[in-house]
Specification:
Number of helices: 17
Helix content: over 70%
Strand order of the largest sheet: 1-4
Subcellular location: Cell membrane
Number of domains: 2
Oligomer: single chain
Order of helices and strands: HHHHHHHEHEHHEHHHHEHHH
Protein name: Xylose transport system permease protein XylH
Largest sheet: 2 strands, antiparallel
Membrane topology: Multi-pass membrane protein
CATH topology of the largest domain: ABC transporter involved in vitamin B12 uptake, BtuC
Low-confidence stretches: 10-21
Pfam family, one: BPD_transp_2
Number of strands: 4
Keywords: Cell inner membrane, Cell membrane, Membrane, Sugar transport, Transmembrane, Transmembrane helix, Transport
Distance between the termini: 38 Å
Shape: globular
Length: 422
C-alpha cells in the first residue's frame, strides 16, 4: 500500500527521462552533436561503412605510392568495369546474408546462365533478347528450387546450395556440350551492355548530377514525411552535408572517367541495380520483412510475416543476380566456357558482400556493401597485377582482408550486445 493511505497518489512514470533520438541531439547541438553521435555509434558497435572506406583509402594510398599508374584514369576506369560481374553477384549474396544464411551456388549459377544465353543465341540462333530472358529466368528458377528445399523441406541452406554448386555446374557442362566453349560475337546485346562507353563528357557529369539530385529529393521527401508524422527527422544541415559529400564523390568519379574514355554503361547499370534494390530493402514492406527475418525469426513469425515466401524470394533474387553477373563476366571474356563461374568467383562474391559491411549474422547490411567490397577486392587484384605479384599472394591478402572484416563484424556485434542493441 502506498505511503499516506489508499487514496494517496501513486508516483507516475512522467519523471523518467524519455529516450532522445540522436538526430534531435544533432539538430540541437550542431557540430558538438555530430561528434557526440559519432562517438556513440562507435562505442555501440554501429560502424557502418567506416571500416571498409578506411581500408579502401589505405589500399589506394599504398598501391598509388608504389606505382602511379594505379590511380590513373585508365586503370580506375578499367577497374570500374571489371568489378561489375562480381559486384552483381555480390548484391544477391547480400540479400541471403541479411537472412543470416549463405548461398554457395552463385558461382555455378552464373556460369550456367551464361551458358544458356551463349548456346541459345550463338549455337542455336535464337533471338538474343529471347536468349537473355531465358538466361535470367533460368537463374530465377534455380533460386526457386533451392528456396523451396530450404524454406519448405527444411534442408539447411548450406547443404542445398553446396549441392547446387555441384549440380548446376554439371548442368552447365551438359549444356555447353563437347565443344566446351561458345564464343560471343561481340556485337550481341550482352557484349554491348558490357563494352559500351559513353565518350561524351556530359554523360558522366549528367549521371552524377542526376544521382545527387535524386538523393536530395529523396532526403527532402523523407524529412517532409517524418515531420508530418511527428517523428524525428534529419535536420537541413545534415541533409546539406550529405548531399555535398555525395556530390564531391560523384563529380570526382565522373571527372576521372572522362579523363580516359568516358562513362562505362556496365558501371551505370551496376549503380542502378544498387540504388533500386537498396530502395527495395530500405523503403518497402518487403525489405523490412527481410531485415526482420534476419534479425529475429521468431519475432518475424509472430508479426505475421510469411517466412517461407520471404526466404524463397530472397534466394530467387540471389540466383537472378548471379545470372546477371554471369552474363557480364561472359561478356568480359567474350565467351562461355567450362570454367565459367569457377575459380575464385564464389569466394570473391561472398567476400565482397562481407568486406563491404554486410553481417554474417544477418539483419545488417546494404546493397552498397557489394560496391564497396568489390572495389576493395578489385583494387587489391589490380594493384597486385600492376606490381607483378603472383596469384598466391593475392589470395593470401584477400583472405586476410576477409578475415579482418569478419573480426570487425564480430567485435561490432559484441559491442552492440553490450549496448543492448541486439
Amino acid at each position: 500500500m502506498p505511503k499516506g493511505g489508499v487514496n494517496a497518489p501513486v508516483p507516475v512514470a512522467a519523471e523518467a527521462t524519455p529516450a532522445v533520438d540522436p538526430r534531435l541531439i544533432v539538430r540541437q547541438e550542431g557540430i558538438k552533436g555530430y561528434v557526440g553521435e559519432f562517438r556513440r555509434r562507435l562505442s555501440s558497435g554501429e560502424l557502418g561503412s567506416l571500416p571498409v572506406v578506411l581500408a579502401l583509402i589505405v589500399i589506394w594510398a599504398v598501391f598509388g605510392s608504389l606505382n602511379s599508374s594505379f590511380l590513373s584514369a585508365q586503370n580506375l576506369s578499367n577497374l570500374s568495369q571489371q568489378i561489375v560481374g562480381t559486384g552483381m553477384i555480390a548484391i544477391g549474396v547480400v540479400f541471403v546474408l541479411l537472412l543470416g544464411e549463405i548461398d554457395l551456388s552463385v558461382g555455378s549459377v552464373s556460369g550456367l546462365c551464361a551458358a544458356i544465353y551463349a548456346v541459345m543465341s550463338v549455337t542455336n540462333g535464337v533471338n538474343q533478347y529471347v536468349a537473355l530472358i531465358c538466361a535470367l529466368l533460368g537463374g530465377a528458377v534455380v533460386g526457386l528450387i533451392q528456396g523451396v528445399f530450404f524454406a519448405k523441406v527444411g534442408v539447411p541452406a548450406f547443404v542445398v546450395t553446396l549441392a547446387g554448386n555441384l549440380g548446376w555446374n554439371g548442368l552447365m557442362l551438359q549444356i555447353l556440350g563437347s565443344s566446351g566453349t561458345v564464343n560471343l560475337p561481340g556485337n550481341d546485346i550482352v557484349s554491348r551492355l558490357y563494352s559500351t562507353i559513353y565518350s561524351q563528357q556530359i554523360a558522366a557529369y549528367g549521371a552524377a548530377a542526376i544521382g545527387v539530385l535524386l538523393f536530395l529529393a529523396a532526403s527532402l521527401a523523407d524529412t517532409r514525411r517524418r515531420r508530418g508524422a511527428g517523428v524525428p527527422y534529419r535536420p537541413a544541415a545534415d541533409i546539406a552535408l550529405r548531399t555535398v559529400v555525395l556530390a564531391v564523390i560523384a563529380f570526382l568519379a565522373a571527372y576521372t572517367l572522362n579523363q580516359y574514355k568516358g562513362l562505362p554503361l556496365a558501371l551505370l547499370i551496376f549503380l542502378i541495380f544498387i540504388v533500386v534494390l537498396d530502395f527495395v530493402l530500405r523503403r518497402t514492406t518487403y525489405g523490412r520483412q527481410v531485415f526482420a527475418l534476419g534479425g529475429n525469426i521468431e519475432g518475424a513469425r509472430r508479426a505475421g510475416i510469411n517466412i517461407s515466401w520471404t526466404r524463397i524470394s530472397v534466394f530467387m533474387i540471389c540466383s537472378t543476380m548471379a545470372a546477371i553477373g554471369g552474363l557480364f563476366l561472359a561478356a568480359q571474356i567474350q565467351s562461355a566456357s567450362q570454367t565459367s563461374g569457377g575459380g575464385n568467383l564464389l569466394m570473391n562474391a561472398i567476400a565482397a558482400a562481407v568486406i563491404g559491411g554486410t553481417s554474417l549474422f544477418g539483419g545488417r547490411g546494404s546493397t552498397w556493401s557489394a560496391l564497396l567490397g568489390a572495389l576493395v577486392i578489385g583494387s587489391i587484384q589490380s594493384g597486385m597485377n600492376i606490381e607483378g605479384l603472383s596469384n598466391a599472394i593475392q589470395f593470401m591478402i584477400t583472405g586476410a582482408v576477409l578475415l579482418a572484416a569478419v573480426v570487425v563484424d564480430s567485435l561490432a556485434r559484441r559491442s552492440q550486445k553490450a549496448a543492448g542493441r541486439v
